[in-house]
Amino acid sequence: MKLRSCSLLSMLLLPFVQAQEPAPSAAPQPSRIARPKLVVLCSIDQLATWVFDDARPHFAATGGFRRLLDQGVLFTECAYLHGCTETGPGHATIGTGAPASVHGIVKNEWYDRLTKTKMYCASDETALPLEAFPEGKLRGPMRLLVPTVGDLLKVSDPASKVVGVAGKDRSAILMAGGAANSVLWYETGKGRFVTNTRWGKTAPKWLLDYDQKKATDAFFGWTWERFGPAAAYDGLVDDRAFEAPHLSTGAHVLPAVLRGGRSDEPNSLFYNEVYVSPVSNMLVLQVALAAILGEQLGQDEHADLLCISFSANDTIGHYFGPDSVEARDVLLRTDAQLAALLEALDVAVGAGRYAFVVTADHGVALPPEVAKARGLGGGRALLHTQARAAAESALRQHFGVEGGEPLVVHAGEYSLVLDRARIATFAPGADDTATFETACSVAAAACSKVKGIQAGVAAHAVRGQVDDQDPIRRALAYAAHERAGDVMLVPAPYWIEAGLPASHGTAHPYDLRVPLLAMGPMLRRGHIADDAVSPGLAAVFAAFWLGIERPAAAVDLLPESAMIR
Hints:
Layout (H helix, E strand, L loop, with lengths): L7 H12 L18 E7 L4 H7 L8 H8 L1 E3 L11 H10 L3 H4 L5 E4 L4 E4 L28 H8 L5 E5 L2 H8 L5 E6 L4 E3 L10 H8 L10 E2 L31 E2 L10 H8 L2 H17 L9 E7 L1 H9 L4 H26 L3 E6 L8 H6 L5 E3 L1 H17 L8 E4 L3 E4 L1 H5 L7 H16 L5 E6 H4 L8 H7 L9 E5 L3 E3 L11 H4 L3 E4 L7 E3 L7 H10 L19
Helix pairs in contact: 1-10, 1-12, 3-12, 4-7, 4-20, 8-10, 10-12, 11-12, 14-16
């Protein structure tokens, strides 16, 4: 299956086709391979293991997944340790090897007690706008508490190059890190890829050249139709009332035309429409290929690192459901895009001279309507609103408080934050910590009684308890950094916050388990490994191939069963 809508590939590769000897058709024997010239860490946003397994029979024989399966290792028991299964935490783990309780990216955003406001996981007040890309300001890795493998590579060899590209800013930033040469992401306001002064006083020339092409505008009027053969969509329903309607038609089915509603030219509505379509991934691939050439990745004795994240799979999964025709379609396209990326690397770097890991930042649950129909339970509710009300009522009753400001100061992303200072005044002369912990336990117990919430857990009760035998509490322990809130909420299986058709963010297996495929020197070919690993193994593999020390914060070790002895 050939990649559609990506004719830029041949143009980008032309200089290398003309200048280099043909790449060998077969990779050299691993025992004879020097360290790779380039390591690629690739994330497919919201690729749950169950989604991958359902689609696997339909991947093309010439697709990227099949090549990675044939030439690399599939880790079937890969799962996140932390229960905060969101984009920010997941990409930070892929980049650092550490769980959320260590790298500090506990949510996409969290409540900051000092400023009494929400803190975005990739906010950075020191990052200023570039003249060419004013939209890129105030984004950076300031909130990350440990270095990425890219940061460590730059310390080990400043001449090495590190590049991050993604649809989402947090994905590119938290994978690649602050020491990278270039970090780029798609901004929906203008429909282009941007960066800021965190990664240089000026934008790289190749990015400026790419921006001049107005690549996003070229997709105005593009028709999103089924990409794969009919059999690849068997059993999927393409007209479900809970799915978001396509902007162009108001219907829930393909085909759909991207044109920003009824606009006659590209506008902000169109650029947002692109963000929730396969075009987003096509653009990420284009920018990644431009970066490979523009930064000359893998072209000298200094090993380089490329971090790339395909974000459209997540936005489409949220709006249409991970079991939708749209989600299956974008994954089939991603398979073809991986093939194109690998082929480009064969030409630009040389087959056998680079290493490649693909995994995901989190999984996803079935839409509640589908889960209920299958007898799995589930539902939609205003979980945070109800949990907040229950906790507030229980706290006031426990302390005998009436009136005044709320005791629950924040509810969001499956956590509550309590007013520590005010609660301390309710028990003068008592130990403030003991009083506050009691309050957290009271609030947690109240939340546990809310329909749709399996448990409320006081964060202090699980913090540091990573050896807990209960898998849910253990996953919460790996997420229980002080930023994570005072009460951690565990929705009941397949219950989600009312709003989008589907979501994630819990400590349940469907959110924790994601695939991991690795191809590179010293790895067995065509091997299926059942080692229990986390997606942080990607950073460990990268350090191994790049010849630098394993990240100190990483949890995973090199899996001996997958290595050539």
